[in-house]
Predict the 3D structure of the following.
Amino acid sequence: PQDPGPDMAGVRAALTEATELGAPGAMARYDGPDGALSEVVGEREAGSGLPMDTDAQFRIGSVTKSFSAVVLLQLIGEGAAGLDDPVNDHLPGLLPDDRITLRHVLNHRSGLWDYSNDMFTQTVPGFEAVRNEVYPLQDLVGLSTAEPLTVEPGSAYAYSNANFVVVGLLVEHLTGQSLAEAYQERIIGPLDLAGTAYVHPENTMPGEHIDGHLTPDEAGQPLVDSTEQTASWAQSAGAMISTPGDLNRFTSGLLGGELLAPEQLDVMLEVMPTDDTGTRHYGLGLRRYDLSCETSVFGHTGTVQGYYTYAFTTEDGEESLAATANTSNNGVVNTALGETLEAAFCGAEAP
Ligand SMILES: C[C@@H](NC(=O)[C@@H](C)NC(=O)CCCC[C@H](NC(=O)C[NH3+])C(=O)[O-])C(=O)O
């Protein structure tokens, strides 16, 4: 059937719902064969009257995991490592179990404990305790390996930020570069992502940016401005900043074959179910969502204090959508924001 094109009214309705449910602002940008379409609702800073702006930077959280996975897969394609190598072959003694491979940390089947569960049991105190800290990646791995594995390596999907901290250490080790240099040289430069940066350990966003607002656990408490933060607890698992247009350029370039050789892109897309809905899957640093209109979209979600993000594209990379809301710790906002995917990729209901 003729692709109906994006239902931008539906995208706007989802963004509006996200703001009605607690986000000061929300925005989305669709890029397709006929160009770009954007929608902005609400404010970039609560009470400021300043509108959201799809040219502005924000914190993309775990969408960073897809950037980290691309770099490691490029290195694998260059022969610097094997996907089924034990991590400990490259980083001796790092992990407590030699059976954990590069594939396991890329597809969340290592069993490594997610230390962020301990950090953020209480949302605002946990955030305040870490927001300006700077952690060596090894120390974050240490927080994980202080706890037992949650599953036998390779036996089941168990999402953990620790996995992509290990990916970051592998990238540093295999390139001899910093993460910032590796992201810049291998992704940001080649795709000319002028609004994308790995600013860690800085706690500010250099350019025009969106403010983040963390929702406290206690109902009725005021939002906490979380704009300034190092995100050092996340780093290669969640510390990147970007813009909606750059995220669309990244996801469409990735699925369009501009960043990985076919062999590595194919293995990145080898997904397994992450829940029992049958519509949510994870490959290597990449999610696949199966939408109601028989369309599958590929990308990643992000949750970092003050920011929810969705960044997805079609399998051919022809259509992409990036959406963000500037609050977090508010599940109904996240769910509403996610409705932009159906509107953008399944388009307007047939009249
Ligand atoms: C889900 C998403 N994951 C990420 O983006 C990673 C970087 N974020 C997290 O693991 C959430 C940390 C807590 C956030 C905090 N929540 C709490 O503190 C809860 N007590 C908040 O909501 O801001 C993904 O992979 O798709």
Observations:
- The pocket of REX is lined by residues 61-62, 116, 120, 123, 126, 161, 214, 234, 237-238, 301-305, 328-329 (CB under 6 Å).
- The first strand starts at residue 25 and ends at 32.
- The chain is about 35% helix and 15% strand.
- The radius of gyration is 19 Å.
